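Researcher: We're reviewing a set of sequences before deciding which ones to prioritize for further study. For each one, I'd like a predicted 3D structure that I can look through quickly. This is Flagellar motor switch protein FliM. If possible, include the structure in token form so it fits the rest of the review sheet.
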Amino acid sequence: MADEVLSQHEIDALLSALTTGDMDAEELKKEENEKRVRVYDFKRALRFSKDQIRSIGRIHENYARLLTTLFSSQLRTYVNITVASVDQIPYEEFIRSIPKVTVLNLYNVSPLDGRIIMEVNPNIAYGMLDRLLGGRGDSINKIENLTEIETILITQLFDKATHSLKEAWSSLIDIDPVLEDLEINPQFLQLVSPNETVVVVSLNTAIGEVSGMINICIPHIVLEPIISRLSVQYWMQNATKKRDPEAVDKLARNIEKVFIDAKAILGETRINMNELLMLSTGDLITLNQSVDQPLMLKINDEPKFHVQPGKYKNKLSVQVLEEIREEPENDE
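Model: Here's the predicted structure for Flagellar motor switch protein FliM, in token form for your review sheet.
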């Protein structure tokens, strides 16, 4: 470790303190010789940096949005899923934190080693099951005695979530997730050693009137081969590589082919229902537009240009005079 360099002002202040007796040189030597010890819990070893944890959080924010869309379409009810927290803890602590009876979905995420767990709170799991069986989505905690049909329905629902998981992780690595098993007792699930570090992503989940948590447990062994990709530099480099000039040109050409609705507004007015019913042939309706004023051209019902009417090749036409720009609102 390099020696700290003091400024001249700091040196003068130190000498002054020693001269006046405000500071004891022997005490300074004693403090320097004392060992500085910091308590470290090896059972809670931090194996991921804050930057890497944020990257995992970004992946699962996307996953939460994809799950919201999936479950909304499957359950035909209001669904809202958001990331609540991302923490790294020992696997033993994760097992202790979840209910004794819950829904545990085990996913194999080949080509990565190991498996990840999606723990679904019973409150949420049975609400989903009730919706699948035609109910209102009420939560009645009876997970400990699921029938064979109920088990199959829940398994099929979370098997469909593998497509969302694959898409969410595609920005980092191409995985082929497969739902291998569904378990209800976490004590029978010894995924890794108790002291192994795992990343737990907690998702706030609301389905209809029911709310609860979905926890995703990712062991260190799963993320170890791709830890180097969980950095800001990798994400920035990856984003730069994705800027394919050919893709941009193709997108621009496709946009040029999109049809939009253009309307030239001759004028507008308002009449009441009685006047409308009394209209007859030859009656005149006065518009709010003067004949010497430019017309308004609307693009997809949005005012875009001021134009003047005319004729071009025996067809009615308008000539663009100026663009209509929105004036910035003044903050008062």
